[in-house]
Amino acid sequence: MSILHTINKTPSSKLLESCLEVASDEDSLLFLEDGIYYARTEFKSIGCASKLTCYALKEDLLARGVKLEASAEIEIVDYNGFVKLCEKSDKVINWF
Amino acid sequence: MAKETQTFTILARTPPYGSNRSSLLLDIALTSSIFEHNTNYVFMGDGVFQLLKGQDADQIKSKTLGKALKALSLYGIDNIFIQESSLEERSIAQEDLILEAKILNQNELKALIKGSDSVISL
After folding, report:
1. Helix (H, G, I), strand (E, B), or coil: what is residue B69?
2. For the whole model, what pTM was predicted?
3. What fold characterizes domain B7-121?
4. Cβ pair A60, A32 in contact under 8 A
């Protein structure tokens, strides 16, 4: 059983903290819309905590001018990748 | 009696594309300039993300706000300010921004608000 968590608000929403309280290690986390600002600096300071696999949506990064080097911590996916993530997860929890 | 020229301060506090607040504020600012108000435009909190370089909202089928903000000076709105702590909290340097703005500390921002006849915060 794995869950895809999505976050669509900036770090000032503190949504990641709420998400991490209930997420398990085998879950995935996707940052999209304003959530992609998490993929900048704050993300690293939180260390994406747990062992979640983290993704950020390419189109939202480009729209907002947020440059992100591909890293081990966070993978960039496009809309097709988003669909695949939904498919392989048993359920999706939207944090907003 | 109201003064002839009013000082009008706009506080932009939201990121550029998650809602329409950022573009509504820009419309308000451009309208205020027609009435020859003295308009201040302040970016604070997540609003500083509106100024990041390299935005391309075509990707999400939207209008690029960063480009539109460059029009502020064309409308005579040159008093553009950024809250210092908002940049620091987000590790944003002045070189990362699309336009030049005066950096305000907490006390300067308070003084600016105090000296304004009206303030709109979105």
Report:
1. helix
2. 0.90
3. Hypothetical Protein Ychn; Chain: A, (3.40.1260)
4. yes
Domain spans of chain B, in order of start: 7-121
Q: Is A41 in Cβ contact with B91 (below 8 Å)?
A: yes
What does the pLDDT read at residue A74? 86
Smallest Cα–Cα separation from B20: which of B53, B78, B61, B65?
B65
B64, B104, B105 from B94: Cα distances, Å: 20, 13, 15
CATH number of A3-95: 3.40.1260.10
Nearest CA to CA, how far is B10 from chain A (Å)?
Answer: 21
Q: What is the DSSP letter of A66?
A: -
For an interface test with B, give the residue of A64, A67, A76 to mutate (most B CBs within 10 A). A64
Residues B90-118 pLDDT 10s: 999 999 999 999 999 999 999 999 999 99
Q: What pLDDT does B36 receive? A: 80
ipTM, interface predicted TM-score of the complex: 0.85
Tokens 């907490």 sit on residue: B106
Q: Is A8 on the interface with B (CB under 8 A)?
A: yes
Q: What tens digit of pLDDT does each residue of A35-69 get?
A: 999 888 656 645 555 578 899 999 999 999 998 76
